[in-house]
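Note to self: keep these together.
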Amino acid sequence: MSFLSHIHVGVSDLQRAHDFYGPLLRELGLQIRNIELADGWIAWKPRDAERPLFIVGWPWNKQHPDPGNGPMTAFLAQSRGMVDRCHALALANGGEDEGRPGLRSNYHPNYYGAYFRDPDGNKLCVVCHEPG
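Structure:
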């Protein structure tokens, strides 16, 4: 059982966010649960569960989204190849590289991750903790 209900990431353009996150989250095994364009949000869920949700949307206070310095969402990948594919998808869909795929043995010997930012500047990571 997950300890998370949902994560909400503020974005300024829902279509751009959909185009960026859609391929990335499909690769990770998530599917769309809701698209609420009038209310300004899109939610994805695991294929086999109702939660946790990953939500992108306009900030609730209707102000411009600000990713801040420090917050990061890390997605769990099933393989190192999936990390590589997600990083490539992110860059192909408007993301900015923050750390190419590779081992980060300073975290632990099998930590294989990639870092990037979405088009609004939110920092993301995709990581596999399994041996090569």
